[in-house]
Amino acid sequence: MNAIAPQVSSVSVSALPSVAELDRALRDASPAEIIAAALKAVGREKLALVSSFGTESATLLKVMADVDPAIPVIFLDTGWLFEETLAYRDTLIATLGLKDVRSIKPAEEALSREDPDRELWFSDPDACCRIRKVEPLARALKPFSGWINGRKRFQGNARADIAVVEDDGARLKFNPFANVSREELEAIFVRAKLPRHPLVASGFRSVGCMPCTSRTAEGEDERAGRWRGRAKTECGIHTMKTS
């Protein structure tokens, strides 16, 4: 555990540094420095990392664990995940020594009301993402003043211009991997001898919910297998403003 972690105390939302100040200060910082700064800004009890335990997730979780493995990790168990993803979650918890992984599920009443036949992913994928990911995450983030995620600029589309620190309404949003390259991610995997997501070997370069994830062909964008054939490129958790 990083020695700075026990020295960090929680602060009120009104006392948080400004987004502009933090982003300017951290623009060229390393991922570990950004996570340490997030801890200092809001305190461990008020900071969470949100992870899909997808194909690249091990790298950010490794960096976080090296700073402080007790930072809460929020995992959205949507009810449509691959069994391989659930197994990978458990593997990484054990491998990295993660101390506080919280698996969050959709509200049963919302599923019964809006998706009783489990066909919403096909008829209205935005609504499906809302009840299975966006709303559960909004509830899970209520106690926190800041959160960390693993988006990278090289992923393109809406992610091409993300800042290192963003305003997320009620809380600060940290993107420690905003500046990293694919080569740097691979170096973390190799150097730390991290296990790969089981589906990578089968041609899945990005993994989400089972009905909306497909393999990617050589030369395709790594997220081309998400919501294939639709204009949709994001589930909505990174476009919401939390309260």
From TrEMBL:
- Cofactor details (free text): Binds 1 [4Fe-4S] cluster per subunit.
Cofactor(s), by name: [4Fe-4S] cluster
InterPro entries the record matches: PAPS/APS_Rdtase, PAPS_reduct_dom, Rossmann-like_a/b/a_fold
Residue numbers annotated as active site: C235
Question: At which positions is [4Fe-4S] cluster bound?
Answer: C128, C129, C209, C212
A GO BP term here is: sulfate assimilation, phosphoadenylyl sulfate reduction by phosphoadenylyl-sulfate reductase (thioredoxin)
**Any GO CC annotation of this UniProt entry:** cytoplasm
Key words, A-Z: Cytoplasm, Iron, Iron-sulfur, Metal-binding, Oxidoreductase
Which terms does the record give in the GO molecular function aspect?
4 iron, 4 sulfur cluster binding; adenylyl-sulfate reductase (thioredoxin) activity; metal ion binding; phosphoadenylyl-sulfate reductase (thioredoxin) activity
Give its localization. Answer: Cytoplasm
Pathway annotation from the record = Sulfur metabolism; hydrogen sulfide biosynthesis; sulfite from sulfate
Enzymatic class: oxidoreductase
HAMAP family per the UniProt record, alphabetical: CysH
Q: Which family does it belong to?
A: Belongs to the PAPS reductase family. CysH subfamily.
Q: What is this protein called?
A: Adenosine 5'-phosphosulfate reductase
Question: Which gene is transcribed and translated to give this protein?
Answer: cysH
